[in-house]
Design brief:
Blueprint: H1 4-33, H2 37-63, H3 83-110, H4 114-144, H5 148-158, H6 168-171
Helix pairs in contact: 1-2, 1-3, 2-5, 3-4
The structure holds hydroxy diiron-OXO moiety.
């Protein structure tokens, strides 16, 4: 059975991951509103990924006989000055999430919870990718600057991103 301390921290992490989904979905709506449907597609895929992150914590709590308690999710920002500002916010947010994951690793070590630790190792690796992909888009947007053509080309490229549901094994957080 999962310890209360870890369970409470994982319930909070579900809230953070769902907030991530909310933030990306809000950015997707913003990108649609300014005609950048490719960026919106990238962000919609990211929203789905965040849902799978939340579900990994959800499943872990349930499998270890813990109680899932869904916490309120705050309203995300709904508009940005530019896509660049939006992706800069996303990058900052991913750095915040990395910090949360690191705190969870520390907690699971202190509590000698090896099962949680194993789950968290997946997130440690995932956060490297999460930060890298947000930062890459920030860099590309900085390069494009005010060029409308450049922005349209980047929009087309980001629009290629697709979402695939994790396999049963990944979905179980193993
Ligand atoms: Fe769940 O990794 Fe992004 O926020």
């Amino acid at each position: 059975m999962i310890k209360k301390k870890i369970r409470d921290a994982f319930n909070e992490q579900i809230q953070h991951e769902l907030y991530s989904a909310y933030l990306y979905l809000s950015m997707a709506a913003y990108c649609h509103s300014i005609g950048l449907d490719g960026m919106a597609q990238w962000l919609r895929v990211q929203t789905m990924e965040e849902m799978t992150h939340a579900m990994k914590f959800f499943d872990h709590i349930i499998e270890r006989d813990g109680k899932v308690e869904l916490l309120p999710i705050k309203k995300p920002k709904i508009t940005w000055k530019s896509p660049l500002e939006g992706f800069q916010d996303a990058y900052k947010h991913e750095q915040f999430i990395t910090g949360r994951i690191n705190e969870l690793v520390k907690l699971s070590n202190a509590e000698k919870d090896y099962a949680s630790n194993s789950l968290l190792q997946w997130f440690v690796d995932e956060q490297v990718e999460e930060e890298a992909s947000a930062s890459k888009v920030v860099q590309q947007l900085e390069m494009v600057g005010d060029s409308g053509n450049g922005l349209l080309m980047l929009d087309r490229e980001l629009g290629q991103r697709t979402f695939t549901w994790p396999t049963a094994k990944e979905g179980e957080g193993e």
